[in-house]
Write a structure and sequence with these properties.
Elements: H1 40-63, H2 66-73, H3 77-84, H4 87-94, H5 112-126, H6 128-139, H7 141-162, H8 169-189, H9 193-197, H10 200-216
């Protein structure tokens, strides 16, 4: 019986992998920059000033003590001295207020009364610091003198820029301050109910013409 030889098998080429196009690399995700947290020293200063304003307003300068202020702020009295040096230095910091008034040249002479009343309403209502400082000013002679200086120094340039006679500028600035501080005292400190209930637009309608007259009208 003839032996059957095995048939040769043709080797099959293995399929070649088709070239793959490189996949586009997605850009690395960018995480938002971390927000800076307030420094411990800033938090401590804020706590001290907040406690000091309330304590000076309630007790006056003479009776308010560093120990009481530190207790209200929940810190050691030595921290108050570290940041402000003395009670006098702390009191000066409490009364260091910027009214953030617009530059005189940016005010329109025709509606400066309206602009200033709106500005001060924003000031009193958006930041309780100014109300607290006013409370200090009406309970303490040194605070009153500091408030006088703040309004004199910061309102006077506006009065000089707008009033018809520069010699009258100090008087006109003082009259303007009387209206703005009187409003703040009645509405935010003493809280007379009719003054508290008055809508902002009515306050502006009442006070703006008076402030306008103080700053721009001829001498009566």
């Amino acid at each position: 019986m003839p032996v059957k030889e095995p048939s040769a098998t043709t080797p099959q080429a293995s399929p070649q992998a088709s070239p793959r196009s490189p996949s586009p690399q997605s850009p690395p995700s960018q995480s938002p920059p971390p927000q800076a947290s307030p420094r411990r020293s800033d938090i401590t200063r804020t706590a001290i000033l907040t406690a000091a304003r309330e304590r000076f307003a309630a007790d006056g300068y003479e009776r308010a003590t560093i120990r009481a202020i530190a207790k209200d702020a929940r810190i050691d009295p030595s921290m108050v001295m570290r940041y402000y040096g003395s009670k006098e230095g702390l009191f000066a910091a409490v009364l260091d207020v910027d009214l953030r008034l617009p530059a005189p040249e940016r005010l329109n002479r025709q509606d400066v009364g309206h602009a200033l009343v709106q500005h001060f309403l924003d000031l009193w209502e958006e930041n309780e610091v100014f109300t607290a400082v006013l409370r200090v000013g009406v309970t303490n002679q040194a605070g009153a003198e500091r408030m006088q200086a703040i309004f004199r120094d910061q309102l006077l340039p506006i009065s000089l820029h707008l009033c018809p006679d520069p010699e009258q500028a100090p008087v006109r600035a003082a009259l303007t301050a009387s209206q703005l501080l009187g409003l703040a005292l009645a509405r935010y400190v003493l809280r007379f109910p009719p003054a508290v209930a008055l809508p902002r637009e009515e306050i502006v309608a009442w006070l703006a013409p008076t402030v306008q007259r103080y700053l721009t009208a001829p001498h009566p």
